Each structure stands twice: as structure tokens, then as C-alpha cells.
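Entry 14. Ran structure prediction on the chain below.
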Amino acid sequence: DYLQARPDIDKDKIGYMGYSWGAAMAPLFLAVEPRLSLALLNVGGFYLQAALPEADPVNFAPRVKVPVVMLNGRFDFFFPTDTSQEPMFRALGTPAEHKKRLIYDVSHNIPHNEVIKEFVGWMDKYWGATSAR
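Output, C-alpha cells:
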């Protein structure tokens, strides 16, 4: 709401960036907040323990429609590739041509330069390159 009230913010270019828990919970936010126009997810996936249906990201993921880039570590011990990361990526309702997943040979931390490169590239792709005001 605060960003919507600021004249210096482009209201059509508000996205969500989540890291770890924030990336795991992203489907909840992305499915219910129409002002978010893209998502940048860093080392996320579905949690493997039970959750209440009304707060389980599994139930919100199919309702996500915005472009999503997801960066994951192949050896992530919090969000295993086969049982957590891949199911979340597949469950996202975003059309295939507007979602991208990159896997790095790391654990639960992607090299910072890779995160910056991919996230800026994703924003440039969907929002256009930034310009000085």
C-alpha cells in the first residue's frame, strides 16, 4: 500500500523477491496479491512437513500466474531437489514460457553474483531496462 502511494514508484513494476523461507512461502503472496507482477525466488521449495490447508503453499502454487525465476542448489539440505524444489516449480500456475529454474552445484546459498545477474536479467526481460530519472 505504501509503494502504491508513492509518485516515484512505478506501480506496474512491483515484484516479490524471496530467499529461503521467503521463497518457500512465495506462492501464498503471489496468488493473493494482484499488484505483484513478477517473482524472484532464491533457494526455495515446498516444506516437507504438514501444514494447514489454508496456509499451505502447495494449495496456492497453481494460482500463481506471474513470471517466476527460481534459483536452487542441487545439494540443498532444507529443500531437496526431487521432493521439494521440483514439485514447487512444476506446481506453479505460471505458463511454462514465463517460468525459469536454474540449478547450481551448491547447497543452500547461490553465489551472490549469479543471483544478481539472473534477477536483474529477469526484471529487465519483463519490465525493460532501468533508466535514470
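The two ends are 23 Å apart (CA to CA). Will compare against last week's run tomorrow.
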